[in-house]
Amino acid sequence: MIEQIIDFAADEVRTSESTREARLDWVIVVDSTLPPGRIVKAAASVAAPTGPAVPGLRAQGGTDADGGDHTGLPRSGCAILAAEPGKLRQVRVQAARRDDSLVVDMPHAAHVTRDRIVGGMGMLP
What we know:
By secondary structure, the chain is of the alpha+beta class.
């Protein structure tokens, strides 16, 4: 459970600046020993709940010059890094100790027990 809300305040959202100038950094660290498909799955799986957990992270969508609608993207860039499993655990422990960090992880069990996890949440397979 998150005790402190990590968010983007409305007055600090500056669309004229690079996302690198944002106060918050978003980093996903993946297990470097996983095959490429599982790395992508893990990154997408932890990114999905991050948006709703960080108020103001997702920008308002818009319409392009051809009239196509687009969902808003994150206000902060997202770096994706890789680490060996031991280092990954160490990074997670350190981040979890900080009051100014949000940790969203995907334990190994989530890779191999999808049916039980998805079924347990009442989602359609």
